[in-house]
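Side project, low priority. Logging it here so it doesn't get lost.
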Amino acid sequence: MISSHLPFFKEARTGFLALFFLSLPSVSHAEGLDSGDTAWIITATALVLFMTIPGLALFYGGLVRTKNVLSVLMQCFAITALMTILWVVAGYTISFGEGNAFMGNFSKAFLAGVGPDSLSGTIPEILFSMFQLTFAIITPALIIGAFAERMKFSAMLLFTGSWMLLIYSPVCHWVWGGGWLMNMGALDFAGGTVVHINAGIAGLVAALVLGKRKGYPNTMMMPHSLTLSVVGASMLWVGWFGFNAGSALAANGTAGMALAVTQISTGAATLAWMFAEWIRHGKPSVLGAITGAVAGLVAITPASGFVGPMGAIAIGAISGIVCFISATTVKRALGYDDSLDAFGVHGVGGLVGALLTGIFAAPALGGYAEIPGIGGQLWIQFIGSAATIAYSAVGSFILLKIIDKAVGLRVSEEDEVTGLDITQHDEKGYNY
């Protein structure tokens, strides 16, 4: 009789043990630390680093000509190494040190005081600093798309390194480190102003200062491998979940919604660009589809923690169309050589997203932010965007001019014709 009830007792025991362990608090190594949040941000950190190498490296690498593919891959790889050291030495403390309204102090230089037991919210501060490092890596890496195929490797290192410390880090402090834009109430969940407007404007200034590539726009300069670019864009799409959902700095509902609206916006932007191109040129291109996807990812970045699905569809669709116009019609009309559309996608897409955040963050439109009305928040978003544009433009111009005087910015005409792979690195991407 008893044996006939053994399955029941086993199931009851299993259910009781499951309820018991589920009722226990999450395992923590220090008071206030949440193991679930920590595990998620470790994952998000890896995802955002994955966006630069290999994601952005392959995306940009496929878009340049065969003779320059290694130079782009090398630039992304070297930037990852350089920003890591500069961030530890001074970037983190300028961005997140106490300081004032414009920049942090140097109390955390070399990560001083950031030990295994120090916390930032519910996660270790050392993990927070490494998560933020991945943003400081990808932002200057985005800029190289604007001056691809013509800047010296030495000048690139000097520019991106000094730019991260003197331009990126102060703007990061303004928005996320307790600076004046944060106190004003500017909304930038994951980097519309800090990352994309900042990098896009710097890219435009760099393209203008260096001038056009030899033969542009009369010589066809087609991507040498759209296959690589599609692979890179796909990696960016996946990695962006760490970028946006990770910016919640917790494994919670905000992270879940940020992930959802990132996916929705990207889908809407991809379709918007694809159909716009289909209507104008008669066929949808692979290059257009992946560029549209990146535009949607960029535009939803500042809004991702504040808007709902309805706002994500609108932001994605609008950014896809506006960036399509910017990267095609506007660039041709103005004649500047933004090689890989760093400004047309990141600068313009970041601006569209930053401004639309002020609209679709409103609860009346499905958003989740407490704002002083749509008009009031839109004005704050405009001020934040304008300040970032002005600071990045002026600062980038000054840095470029100083570096040009010191080592020269541009390779010689002969080196440009030969290609940067051989002239800058003495190697070839392909041995045919």
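Brief comment: The chain is about 70% helix and 0% strand.
Revisit when time allows.
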